[in-house]
Amino acid sequence: MGVSWSTMLPGAGAEPAMPDGIKKISDRVYSLSEPKAGPPEIEIVFVHGLQFSDYKDAFWRTWIAGVKDEDGTEIFWPKAWLGDELPRARILSLSYDSSAWRTNKQGLMDAYVVGETLVQEMVGMAKVGQHKNCPVVFVAHSLGGLMVKEIVCKAQGKFRNDLKFQNFLQNIGGFLFYATPHDGAKLADTAAKVPNMGEMVRLLGVINKELGRLNSQFKQIAAEEFAGKWEFVVVAETHVTEFYGISAMVVEEASARHGYKTFYSVSEDHFGVCKPKERTNTSYMALLQLLELVTVGKSLTLKSEMEDLR
Questions:
Q1: 143-156 and 209-220 are packed helices; what angle lies between their axes, rounded to 10 degrees?
Q2: To which H or E segment does residue 247 belong?
Q3: CB 106 within 8 A of CB 196
């Protein structure tokens, strides 16, 4: 049971070391890249998915590229590629108890509590969404997309009378969902019957009142309070995933698509969908497209522009 979804890719070997430069802001919020000077022009928040091993390093391990550098070094693409291209971006990653297994130390928290905690640490401690003319973009893999919805719902609901949370909501610009099971996953229905499955697995079931409530509430917020203000991009898997002796499509197309207009399918399994092998892969280009949509009318500073000023 000590294998994680993120490291069960074909050819996966020893665990990579945590990339340099990551700074802890709070228990659940980590800084991957910060502007060297001045306020950020955009805030990009990465959110990992379900884990079958210790979830505590998933906030960076999930985003290791599907290829190594020339010297054999693992590529942590949010920092190595995105941080390199956007020097004035603030790039963060969230960590939360997403364990698939329930023990006396993990797999105990449900989506409501996780969402409530994450949004308070993001807004209250990391000050996300508090910079003027600085859009916030969420990049989420699998279950992480549902956690993002919980974050938004808690900000709009429980904390809506707090100015900091109002600023946060107003500054949200878009969402990239990598293989998020918006309508559940059939595989999760089977997994939920296994003894000692964590609380998060139950959220992923196809017939699930909690997931239905979450989708309905998020859809209402997006349609009524932020109509036309939020951009959505979906990237879905097309290959079956092999793990624990099972070969299956983890998130079906319909569940990933969920009616969102901008939809891409990539030739990867569930784990590889957020692990681009090069900057021209659709899975990476889709994020750049989202950032373009979110910043229409604004001017993001690119690395090439910074070099021209030297």
A1: 60
A2: strand 246-248
A3: no
Output the six-digit token pair for 55.
């979830």
Measured CA angle at 191 (ends 189, 197), to 5 deg = 120
In the chain (310 residues long), the average pLDDT of successive 10-residue segments reads: 37 65 97 94 96 84 94 94 95 90 60 93 98 97 96 96 97 98 78 62 74 96 95 97 81 96 97 97 98 83 56
| Rounded-to-integer distance, Cα 310 and Cα 299, Å | 19
The strand pairing partners of 263, in sequence order, are 234
To the question of pTM greater than 0.70 for the whole model, the response is: yes
Q: Where are the domains of the chain?
A: 5-308
Residue located via tokens 């990579």: 16
Q: Report d(CA 204, CA 185) in Å as an integer.
A: 6
CB within 8 Å of 244: residues ≥ 6 apart: 3
Length of the chain: 310
Structure tokens, 46: 């990465």
Helices assigned H by DSSP within the chain: 58-61, 77, 84-85, 111-120, 143-156, 163-171, 186-191, 199-203, 209-220, 253-257, 282-294, 303-308
Please state which of the four CATH numbers 3.40.50.1820, 3.20.20.10, 1.20.1250.20, 3.15.10.40 is assigned to the domain occupying 5-308: 3.40.50.1820
Radius of gyration of the chain (CA): 18
CA 154, 156, 160, 165 dihedral sign is: positive
